[in-house]
Fold Cysteine proteinase.
Amino acid sequence: MATYTPQQLELYLERIRYPGSDTTSRLQCLQQAIAENPLATLAELQRRQLSSIPWGNSALHYSTHRTISIRPACVFEKLVVRRLDGYCMENNTLLYAVLRSLGYQVYPSGGRVCLAASGATYEGVEKLYTGLSHMVLIVLIEGDKYMVDVGFGTNGPTSPLLLKPDFVSVCMAPTEMRLVYDALPEYVDQTQKVWIYQIRYTPDSNWIPMYSFLGTEFLPQDFEVMNFATSQRQTSWFTQTVVCTRMFLDEAETAVQGLYILAGTEVKKRQLGQSEVVETLQRDADRVTALAKWFDMHLRDHEVEGIRGLVSEIK
């Protein structure tokens, strides 16, 4: 697995607005923080990436190639240098290479998205999962394993989750999150268990599964297959519609407070359990402007022209 140079790490830290000082570089500040408290520093890197680098699939619509590469060099160029969005295998590949470069013991694992994550509420939806299509990171710190994910978008985890069943923590207040260790309903052999990431919107509401993951290490070639299916298969919803999300922090920058969601012809802001439409998009040019305004994504002319004639174009 590739790593990044100190110069690249400095650019990444600038991208996620990691603090430095007048006398010490961002990277030196970060290395000192890791030495003092690697778990707290991991959590800060996670929330800063979530609030700086959007989750989305613009490259499948606003480009001439309509492809996605998850090579670490390509991911760095796209997410850090170009300041564009990425989906799970891009955003998590970036963080994976960063963590390896910083000396963390980390490996990627693969998972399946629950159909309930789409917001569907028909009977039995919480029992249905996609094929392998999601990437998470497993980080080992002082003998414990933590799941870290910066690539799920809406309702994704906002801090490292200890691989311990039923430990409840705050996702984005008032929403809570937890992991359970159980068999998927579709398994013939119910003794085979996986980790399932769940959220609930309020403390008295039902837990909703978002995705499951195996916890075992996946190799780059595994994600190559998963990425190709997710980005190129005709039945993949990623190829049908443009979506983009970006979380934002509280004033103290110690917790994720809300997020912006672009989907369909609306941009919504979700904060403290409330959701409001902040912009309605009448035509595709409005969406291009909205991507710049709400997500700091500035597309080039040839990228904007790439969506012409696609089903995802707002006409």
